[in-house]
Design goal:
This protein is an alpha/beta fold and 310 residues long. The protein is built from 10 helices and 12 strands. The protein has a 12-stranded mixed beta sheet with strand order 7-8-9-6-5-4-3-2-1-10-11-12, covered by helices on one side. The structure holds S-adenosylmethionine.
């Protein structure tokens, strides 16, 4: 369906948990403060979103794979909402062991967050010496043949920025896309402006990256000669893409959040047993989606991204 600004909203990001097995410096990893719905409840809500035109769903968190029943969630959501794309965004720690079941349950796209290929830098950023299992997870996902595997990285000035070349090289050697996300002002980073590496800075460092003219709504893609995958720039700060936003979020407690950059959420749980009322509640929430975020002036968001679902 269209929102009040004429944007076609067809993408739902479902946060299945606030819990995470990493503690990334810039994410916040705030203590969980909300309960988690059952797989069946996520499926019933997903069906309501499908009724208003959602055809792409991504499960995120927190870390979605810390839920023992993650494949039950993906299986039931797939059956209830039949999205064209069912994706999972993960830090990859548990991916090697769960990839096959995820694929069998209907997941066709996997995004792995990976900010550094240097073991000690990875540990410094995430709080865990876990680079190897993440790389194993990526390899496993590629070997199983998911329709799409992508790496998402956030570069921080003076921390992992120098490692951008190694991350880019992943797309040279493997059939996956590597996307750089500009740091957004979540948690108490406060210093996000100083730490943020803007997309233009990355592009200036790697002049061999050539625009492809492709975008998926958030990322703008670049190609390099001889590369198997593409490089994407996600620039929520330097090139705000709110006017092309096509998504809403469902939090792990059944509240819908129309915009990442605004605190408003609306509870869907009172309507979960009544498909008609549920559809109406979802439509009303989508119509309340704001025109855009104000991260550029709003520097200290109090919500950690693990609570919202990144
Ligand atoms: N645990 C999963 C993962 O690591 O992909 C899903 C949740 S995580 C919050 C989703 C994405 O949000 C990750 O790629 C992470 O790098 C990104 N992220 C977290 N905090 C961010 C921030 N302040 N600015 C930009 N991206 C952020």
């Amino acid at each position: 369906m269209k929102d009040n600004y004429g944007r076609e909203i067809h993408y739902l990001r479902i946060s299945v948990t606030q819990r995470c097995n990493l503690n990334c410096a810039y994410c916040g990893a705030a203590k969980p403060d909300a309960g988690e719905l059952s797989p069946a409840d996520f499926a019933r809500l997903a069906a309501g979103f499908a009724a208003v035109g959602i055809d792409k769903i991504r499960l995120t968190g927190g870390e979605p794979l810390v839920r023992d029943d993650i494949c039950e969630i993906t299986r039931l959501v797939k059956a209830a909402a039949a999205p064209k794309t069912l994706g999972v965004t993960t830090n990859g720690l548990l991916l090697a062991e769960k990839a096959e079941e995820l694929l069998l349950s209907g997941v066709n796209a996997v995004n792995v967050s990976l900010d550094s290929l240097d073991r000690s830098c990875y540990r410094q950023l995430t709080g865990r010496d876990a680079l190897t299992p993440v790389l194993d997870g990526i390899e496993k996902a590629l070997s199983l043949g998911f329709r799409r595997v992508r790496i998402n990285a956030v570069l921080l000035r003076g921390v992992n920025e120098k490692g951008a070349d190694r991350l880019i090289e992943l797309a040279k050697d493997m059939p996956l896309d590597v996307r750089f996300i500009e740091l957004m002002p979540f948690s108490d980073v406060g210093e996000s402006e100083r730490m943020r590496i803007r997309s233009d800075e990355i592009l200036a460092r790697f002049p061999f990256l050539l625009p492809t003219g492709e975008t998926d709504g958030t990322a703008v893609y670049y190609a390099a000669p001889g590369f198997k995958g593409k490089i994407g720039m996600i620039s929520p700060i330097s090139k705000k893409f709110c006017n092309a936003c096509n998504r809403v979020r469902l939090l792990c407690n059944g509240r819908v959040k129309p915009c990442l950059g605004h605190p408003e959420t609306y509870d869907l749980m009172p309507y979960i047993d009544d498909p008609e009322q549920l559809e109406t509640a979802i439509r009303e929430a989508i119509l309340k989606k704001p025109a855009g975020h104000h991260f550029e002036t709003d520097k200290n968001h109090t919500h950690a991204l693990n609570r919202i679902g990144g």
